[in-house]
Specification:
2 copies of one chain form a homodimer. The first copy, chain A, is α+β, with helices and mostly antiparallel strands. Chain A has 3 domains: 75 residues, Winged helix-like DNA-binding domain superfamily/Winged helix DNA-binding domain (Arc Repressor Mutant, subunit A, Orthogonal Bundle), CATH 1.10.10; 153 residues, 2-Layer Sandwich (Beta-Lactamase); 96 residues, Enolase-like, domain 1 (2-Layer Sandwich). The first copy, chain A, has 12 helices and 10 strands. A 5-stranded antiparallel β-sheet of chain A has the order 7-3-10-9-8, sandwiched between helices. In chain A, a hairpin with a 7-residue loop joins strand 9 and strand 10. In chain A, 42% of the residues are buried. The interface between A and B is medium-sized, with 32 and 31 residues. The structure holds a DNA duplex.
Chain lengths: 340, 340
DNA sequence: GACTGGCACTCGCCGATCAGGAGTGCCAAC
DNA sequence: GTTGGCACTCCTGATCGGCGAGTGCCAGTC
């Protein structure tokens, strides 16, 4: 049996009311607060069908109805109208992201902004190295046998790494190495560098070969292999809103999951450009997060992607609002990065 | 009235039992589990005195006793024997801190180690810029009017900042600026740099004055004025151990406080070298943390201080254990930094 | 056929009540 | 100063009944 318009309207009303009040919603309350144009008895019949179809359920006999994950899903896919940001929110975003000092600052501000606007836990990934290009490589002699390698990416990320050389190395050699490395690698996407780095070693004069090989190893290791993703978290305190009712009684597993960067990266990764992805309840692959929902998006200058961001909260969350906010923040962040 | 040895022994037993069981401890249970050599009636008398003096209290009439903050304080100051680390713990520390890749890695590992060993929330501050010296300043041209300023400190911290120049700047000028800046500033403690930077500007040839002034502004701003401290947090999930009983019913305020870097810095700052500081309950100045205790220490190569670290948990915590762990980790971390 | 008012029924919630038990304070005796 | 004993307190957990929100169903109406 397919659901007619009114039943969908009832579902929407249930979701909205439940999200707002956090209490099971009954047929009587529904007709009072929404102009459905029918009596509570009719709504009850509709509810029975919706329950039959698995979109809502009763916590116990003779209690109101609560949306199921399937209900939220339907709501998000077909029922929620896009909620435009309020001017105040727009202003907040612009003010918050104005005049950042450096990349850390940008990410820091963004994540706090996101947490504040959505009142959920916010996650922002730093621009991914894998998706960055080399802007410049700097070699700074620290001692006669040690060089600090500093890589500056076009996304603003700066990575450094200490390189232990096999033997003493003259300042002139450092200059030469720097020139060569930059000549070859500057402007290249990090993902494309491995063969180029290898070529660098091969092209080297025998007496410099050892040093260069050493440098190359660290280069590859740092920039590509353990291409570490970084991210920032904010708003964990928001998990405690609404008592311990959400999250089936315990914050524990959620907090634990939030400590694992790998998990977080998975959560906010792999989203098509300019879209928003919503994972509801056990659509999350992580067991500890079966009681949460995640709204995530990708960001980057223009239509490219350099990283992801998102918010996490109870399945009982304001999806339209959060989706709008996440999308807007992602776009602002992309624009901001494009400016540099 | 002063407390005789047995009363102190009773207090210690109460603290130890309460920390272990998280339940008010009664006179009967005490004599059973500790060899006090007296009857429960005697212990009851002692308890009455201890309560009189404010070291323990009853949650309600006819319940066991619970230590007060004053009781914990006395316990920490006079009653707790130093608990040496187990070989397993030592090994864990050594394994955890072996072969770090860079400073981020060091801090990251340290904070997770601390959280894991103490089963509390751990905080580790990055080496403070204010206490670092300049090892090298690098100027990397990004475009004709933009330079990226990279500062490498002796503590391993690397800070970068984009400098917008008043006009186009030639590569030769960059080289010259770099030479001058390093000549003057390398090896200097950051705190001492402001007059030196000013001198740099004054010494400049008029045609380079503008550029140098611009650079100087950013230098001062980045390195000294908004000398930003960074830190890392781990183990927030540990707050949920022991139900919501600790923290007077709500994690909320605690989680909120943990989001404020300023607060965290205050918590773990200002500790004498080679000592450990313990703040119990409302000895903390932060209202949100009145229900928590903090064990903190400073670290640095040798006897110097470059940063702080610590753990935070319920007042009902294993003080001797946590003190030992914090101290040990601080020392290992200091040694590790000394090696570089 | 869809909607509505009415009504009996279910069942969680809340407060009251009560027994059990852990723990105390006090006192007399040693 | 210490101890055994005893009356007392009061928290905990279980039980119970009334209340009320909410439902499902049915007969009647448009």
């Amino acid at each position: 049996m397919s659901l007619d318009d009114r039943k969908l309207e009832v579902l929407r009303a249930i979701v909205e009311d439940y999200v707002a009040t956090q209490e099971p919603v009954g047929s009587k309350a529904l007709v009072e607060r929404h102009q459905l144009g029918v009596s509570s008895a009719t709504v009850r019949n509709d509810m029975a069908v919706l329950e039959e179809e698995g979109y809502i359920r009763q916590p116990h006999t003779s209690a109101g109805r609560v949306p199921t994950n399937a209900g939220y899903r339907l709501f998000v896919d077909r029922l929620s109208r896009v909620k435009p940001l309020s001017p105040a929110e727009r202003r907040a975003i612009e003010r918050f992201l104005a005049d950042p000092v450096d990349l850390d600052d940008v990410v820091h501000r963004t994540v706090r902004l996101l947490a504040q606007l959505t009142r959920q836990v916010a996650v922002v990934q730093y621009p991914s190295l894998a998706r960055s290009s080399v802007r410049h490589l700097e070699l700074v002699p620290i001692s006669t046998t040690r060089i600090m390698l500093v890589m500056i990416a076009d996304t603003g990320r700066v990575e450094q790494r200490l390189v232990e050389m096999p033997g003493p190395i003259a300042p002139a050699d450092v200059t030469e190495l720097r020139r060569k490395v930059n000549e070859k690698l500057a402007g290249q996407r990090l993902a494309d560098t491995p063969p180029l780095v290898q070529a660098l070693v091969d092209d080297c004069s025998p007496e410099r070969r050892g040093t260069m090989a050493c440098l190359a190893t660290v280069l590859l290791e740092t920039l590509v292999e353990r291409s570490e993703e970084r991210l920032m978290l904010a708003g964990t305190a928001n998990l405690t809103r609404g008592g311990v009712l959400d999250f089936q009684g315990s914050l524990r597993p959620v907090l634990e999951a939030l400590e694992e960067e790998v998990i977080l990266l998975k959560l906010i990764g792999e989203v098509e450009p300019s879209t928003t992805r919503v994972r509801i309840g056990d659509e999350n692959e992580i067991d500890n997060l079966r009681s949460t929902s995640v709204v995530s998006a990708s960001y980057g200058p223009g239509a490219t992607i350099v990283g992801g961001l998102g918010v996490l909260g109870p399945t009982r969350m304001d999806y339209p609002g959060n989706i709008a906010t996440v999308r807007a923040v992602a776009r602002y962040l992309g624009d901001l990065l494009a400016q540099n």
